[in-house]
Amino acid sequence: MEQLQAQSREKKTGNAVKVLRNEGWVPGIMYGSEVGNKPIQVKGRELDAALRQQSTNKPFRLSVDGNTHDVMVYELQRHPLQGNILHADFKKINMNEKIHTSVPVLMTGDPELGVATLVRHSVEVTCLPGNIPESFLVDVDGFNIGDVVLVGDLTVPPGVELGLDSTEVLISVLPVKAKSEESIDAEQEAEAVAEKAGTANE
C-alpha cells in the first residue's frame, strides 16, 4: 500500500489556492464519518509518484500531521490541457469492511483475425479494500472474429464478488471495418488534387 504525506490546511479559494499550487501542493479534502470534511494538502510530485505505483481504485495510507488514515482516492480533478492534478478527494475507509469499487478491464495480445473491442472498460466488485484487484487482464492472443469474453471467464481472486451477471460480454472480436464509399471517394479526390498540383509545379 502506497503511503502519502499530507498537511492540514485552511480552506482557501481564489489566489490563495493558486499560490498553493504554484508551490507544488495539491489542495484536497479527506472526509469520512470519523474525520468530517478535513481540508488537506499533498505534494503534487509525491501524489503523481504514488499513482504511478498503484491505481486509484486501491487503498492508500495517508499521514496527516502525524496521524495515519487508510483512504481511497474518491475523485481527482485534472487540468483539461496540462493534465496535472488540481484537486484530490480522499475517503477514509475501514480495511475490515467491504466496499464497492470498479476494476478496469485490460487486454493483451492480438487476435488472429479481427479487432478486439472492449464492450465494458471496468467491472464493479465488492470486497475488502486489501483484496481489490489492480485490474482484470484478458489475453486475446489468437482469438478470431466472433469470439467473446464474458464476465464469467474472468479469473477472480478469492474474496472478490463481481457485481455483474456472468453472461455479460466484456470483449468482442469484430471484423475490421471496410472503408466506406465516402472515405474512398475522398481519398481518390485528394490523390487527384495532389497529382494535379504536382503536374502544375513541373
UniProtKB/TrEMBL annotation:
Cellular component terms (Gene Ontology): cytosolic large ribosomal subunit
GO BP term (any one): translation
GO molecular function: 5S rRNA binding; structural constituent of ribosome
The organism's place on the tree of life at top rank: Bacteria
InterPro entries noted in UniProt: Rbsml_bL25/Gln-tRNA_synth_N (IPR020056), Ribosomal_bL25/Gln-tRNA_synth (IPR011035), Ribosomal_bL25_b-dom (IPR020057), Ribosomal_bL25_C (IPR037121), Ribosomal_bL25_long (IPR001021), Ribosomal_L25_dom (IPR029751), Ribosomal_uL5_bac-type (IPR020930)
Domain Large ribosomal subunit protein bL25 L25: 4-90
Keywords tagged on the record: Ribonucleoprotein, Ribosomal protein, RNA-binding, rRNA-binding
Domain Large ribosomal subunit protein bL25 beta: 98-175
Keyword rRNA-binding applies: yes
Cross-referenced SUPFAM superfamilies: Ribosomal protein L25-like
Quaternary context: Part of the 50S ribosomal subunit; part of the 5S rRNA/L5/L18/L25 subcomplex. Contacts the 5S rRNA. Binds to the 5S rRNA independently of L5 and L18.
Family classification: Belongs to the bacterial ribosomal protein bL25 family. CTC subfamily.
Stated role: This is one of the proteins that binds to the 5S RNA in the ribosome where it forms part of the central protuberance.
Name the UniProt record assigns to this protein: Large ribosomal subunit protein bL25
Species whose genome carries this gene: Brevibacillus brevis (strain 47 / JCM 6285 / NBRC 100599)
GN (gene name): rplY
